[in-house]
Amino acid sequence: MTHTVAHFGKDLIGIEPLSAEQILLILDTAEPFKEISERRIKKVPVLRGKTIVNLFFEPSTRTRISFEFAEKRLSADTVNITTTGSSVVKGETLVDTARNLEAMRIDMVVIRHGSSGAARFLAERIPSNVVSAGDGSHEHPTQALLDLLTIRDRLAKIEGARVCIVGDILHSRVARSNIYGLTKLGAEVGVCGPPTLMPVGIEELGVRVFRRVEEAIEWADVLNVLRLQLERMQGGYVPSLREYNRVYGVSSARLERVPKELLILHPGPMNRGVEIDSDVADGPHSVILDQVTNGIAVRMAVLYLLAGGAPEKAESAKGGVEE
Amino acid sequence: MAQTRTPLMDEKAVRRALSRMAREITEQTGGTEGLVLMGIHRRGDEIAEFLRDEIHKAEGIEPALGSVDITLYRDDLGVIGPCPVVGESTLPPDGIDGRIIVIVDDVLYTGRTARAALNELMDWGRPSRVYLCVLIDRGGRELPIQPDIVGRKVEVIGNRRVEVLVPALDGSLAVEILKAPAGGS
């Protein structure tokens, strides 16, 4: 009678290795967690006594705070380690840092790192659960999950939805995780951006490429507008921010040309007036702040599922589960 | 060897017990003023709905209904393995502060579920009084928790299960005792 589910694994490194069922399990688990953040006492004791280390090697405000809220609302003890002010600046390697933390008896690590593959590297070397909070230009799984949850909230289902990701697809881990998640759940996915920021062979991931943002707007039900990293200009990928805005910026003038209600997502932080105009960001179709709220619920769901234990214990425990 | 099911209560017997329990609730709480029936997800919810209807019939007023999912308050999360699916808890619209709460469940066994439900209620607010109401008290308590209102008390040995069948989930209303095959769970 107890409702148990398929094995979830030790770590969350990316969306690519997950099955559609596993993704849906995370989204379904996130639903009841939304309600906890609306309570007067925003705390449940489910991870009481677990120690979670947030290991952030790259600057991050939203993701780190979101993870920290999720951990605290599940009653876990948290420690934040950022690169400045830690022994990382003294030349300690990633695995040594992690082993030292292990020696202090931790249970989980949330890692953000500038190198693709850092989360997997760590997960293979320590027994703690590892959750990726973004690694290089590889994946940012919890961002994709919160995007999926936000789209599902509004459209009722993801299957068949047309989602276009607009911006720097080449360097974006958000784009990659979103493409994996959306295609696994049966959405149609498009990408749109300057040719210099479009990976060669991206079509092989099962996406349509739009050259012009107007075409993308005409086709899509949902636009996920990515942040244009300002460093890209120095890298010579785009001539100027103004030109980028003129050609690829999501503006209300462009949206008004099509008579439909587009859902607008943005992973933040926004460059207003570059990839997205203020009247769109604050407009009626923007679900950008819903994404932030959903981010906590999704991260609570991930932490809860990873803490759930090993599958082989399930059978033996069934008899002991009380009625 | 398959599981054997022995009937304990048929639909008539369950309905009689429920209407008596409903009367006992209003007797103990002194009417429906400030009364909230709080079902423990999922079969407790169903029992709570029956009790609400019975109280409505007798008193002419429908008491408020709530639901508590205790998954996140379990004491055995690390033991039971792949996470049980988390359900949603719902509060009555005016909250539970100062109200009389009747926690409703189908079967009371070790008392651990009731403990979890109590903790969750306390995190939500400060009820003026909490009662525990169960359809079946099967004994075997592991915690100092006792019910206030009981449908039927039976002593059932550890390897048997008491199953309450409800129309919404099982298509019928009855109570059965399950005997697992030897060596099974």
Classify the helix fraction of chain B into a percent range: 25-40%
What number is the mean pLDDT of chain B?
90
Structural class of chain A: alpha/beta
Strand fraction of chain B equals 25-35%
Description:
- The complex is a heterodimer of chains A (323) and B (185).
- Chain A contains 13 helices and nine strands.
- Chain A is an alpha/beta fold and 323 residues long.
- Chain A has two domains: 20-139 and 294-317, 3-Layer(aba) Sandwich (Rossmann fold); 141-290, Aspartate/ornithine carbamoyltransferase (Rossmann fold, 3-Layer(aba) Sandwich).
- Chain A is globular.
- Chain B is of the alpha/beta class and 185 residues long.
- Helix content of chain B is 31%, strand content 28%.
- Chain B contains five helices and eight strands, in the order E-H-E-H-E-H-E-H-E-E-E-H-E.
- In chain B, helix 1 crosses helix 2.
- Chain B is globular and about 50 Å long.
- The two termini of chain B are 13 Å apart.
- The relative contact order of chain B is 0.21.
- The model of chain B has no long low-confidence stretch (mean pLDDT 90).
Quick summary:
Chain A has helices at 20-36, 62-73, 94-103, 118-123, 141-155, 173-184, 213-219, 231-234, 241-248, 252-256, 278-281, 288-306, 312-318, and strands at 51-56, 77-82, 108-113, 129-135, 162-166, 188-192, 207-210, 222-225, 263-265.
